[in-house]
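hey so i finally got around to running the thing on that chain from the lab meeting. sorry it took forever, my laptop kept dying and i had to restart like 3 times. anyway pasting the input first so we r on the same page abt which one it is
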Amino acid sequence: MAYTIIDDPSAFFQTTLYAGNGGADHSITNTGNSDLQPDFVWIKNRDTTDVHCLFDSVRGVTKLLTTVGDILQTTDTDTLDAFNANGFRVDADVKVNTNAENYVAFQWYAGTTGSGTTTGSGTGKAYSYSVNTTSGISIVKYGGNGSAGHTIPHHLGVAPAMVICKSITQNRGWPVQHKGLTSAAYSVYLSQTNAQSDGTNSWNSTAASSTVTTLGNDANNNRVDDNDQYIMYSFAEKSGYSKFGTFTANQNVNGTYVHLGFSAAFIIVKNRAAQKNWYMFNNKTLGFNPLNDYLDVNTNEDEESGNNQIDILANGFKLKSGGTGTNKSGDKYIFMAFAASPFVTSTGIPTTARWWLEKK
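ok and heres what got predicted. didnt touch it at all, straight out
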């Protein structure tokens, strides 16, 4: 059994569904057991082809990034304009607030802020951050210097299992370092379907350490021209709360079981071996077991329904599709997952998949 130090995951991560009203100052209130003032918010319209919208407190409100394409940050004052004490506020932009359309928002709390100067090769650059060492999330905004060996402090205190970077000043890609890729010399890209590829220039063939993430001289995460700026999201694995890893698919409707040690609120999977989408699941949208609805991270498509891809279980998830998107026979997939409830509490009490809902 997997024990946890986080008995209530909703203090650090929540999935929230909301309906748009088309007006200004529409406040969205979280419904978890704990209040959560988010530092990272990921919003998607479930009903139509709007892009994914990503915001964080380090870059600031109204600063929009999307995983659909390699587009630089835009300032859109009609999107998310406040991180509230227990949720957030949006204005009238259709991407986040069309009247009578349905949205999902994934939210992470970090909380501790700071700033400093980057280290390693080349000229040190200013950076600012928000971090939570308990839940294992770090958000860092930094300047590129173009030198292989440029190191970015993440302040997690342990090595992250997954690192995502994006230029906010140029039209560049989303390189991802993940513990489940073949080696630290490989990347996948959050906005692309491509299989893993040589990421030497992104990560200098170096896995992130307990203190820093090492960059190569790739323009996607370390360009120096025009005072280029980047955002880096890092996630460390925490027993009973978050999990990052791999599984091998078998293309069987009674497919591979992936042990997490918790019932998941949020899962993303990506085939590292083939040109496939990134698939995003959660435990709140209609269709939850056995016909889980899902979103494609790298497209603007609305929520897909009626396809039995995975079952979210009390202590993991099970592949259920006979197709090749999430379950291509023999291929290896990477995943990230965050908990709705631990399988076993910090005091050793077993829970169920609906334990926190029943507790409320």
